[in-house]
Design brief:
- By secondary structure, this protein is mainly β.
- Helix content is 0%, strand content 44%.
- The strands form seven sheets. Strands 2-3-4-5 form a four-stranded antiparallel sheet, with no helix packed on it.
Amino acid sequence: MVRIFKKIIPGFILVLVLFQGAFAKVRSNSFVEFPYNLYAYDMTGDGITEWVTYKDHKIYITDMTFETNGKVYARVPSKIKRIFFGKFSNRSKGGLCVILKNKQIRCYGTNPQNNKLWWGFTQNNFIRSDEKILVGDFDGDGLDEILLYRYKKGTFRMFEREKNKFFRAHPKFHIGNLNKSKEFKKWKVYVGNFGDANDGRRDDLVFYNTKHRQVKYFAGRRNNKGQTTFWWAFTTNKKIFSKHEELSVVNVEGGIHEKIATHNQKSGQIKFYHLIFQNGKLKRFPFSVGQIGAKKNTRLFWVKTQKNTEPGSASRHDAMLYNKKNKVFMRYDARYNRKIRRKTYWWAYTQYALQLDKDPDKDGI
């Protein structure tokens, strides 16, 4: 049984994903863990993210509104172990892929009416259980690739979908400056388009060492042999952030390039940074958080929940905060304050987190 929660709670909180470009782009990142197997991705191709969740062999998709109207409820042949999302073909919409207990990967997209999941293809699972899944356009062809990072070993593999066929090892991937595996053990990795001047079409990588609180930045490049690779750009000093700060990737101002956001889970303070090296740290990007403010004991995520005609609205991310104690989301939309001529964030609503087979507010919904 599926139940959704939509009761307002004054003053509370949640969050989610990342995008790029004039229809903000969502990337799967298995380092970004949301509560209750929740994910956000644009399954319908309209530039707005939907909620996606799963349990056992069930997949449920709803729109990302206060009412959380259901769009798709589907079942797959075996229990789901993992899920990831991406635009792996030239169809107008992206899709989802599930790794099943029966050792298959099955990929799906929505039908033209966006009320059913249509099966795309099935292949044997090639992703190890200890590999983190990162999705982005690493070779600049307009489609997504899968970068697999073995967290405890510091090693990498890249896969692409062969046209109208299956995922295969990327034939032009070169390890480049990611070749020193000992240096990359147990770093968190974030994918984003950070505006590298020489090859801005390709997604880049930011590594974060949570122990030393240090950042390494690698730009996505094409080498002189035509191979897809990553080149080291810089490494910051240690302890540039506090131990309570969590990193995320966000399009905060519009356009196609993204920034790093830090959110102090204890104090609630939010800061933004360019991927520019300055005196051993990242260069600060001053920007108003508006009505998000600084709310304690929360987690921050970024999504794309609405479109309007305001400056930068096509690609700016909206904010979601998650209150860990009360298990609620608070949505803040990217808006433009015309009185002071400044981009900012305004509160939209508060709701319980979507869960399968739960009803925490006991309203029967």
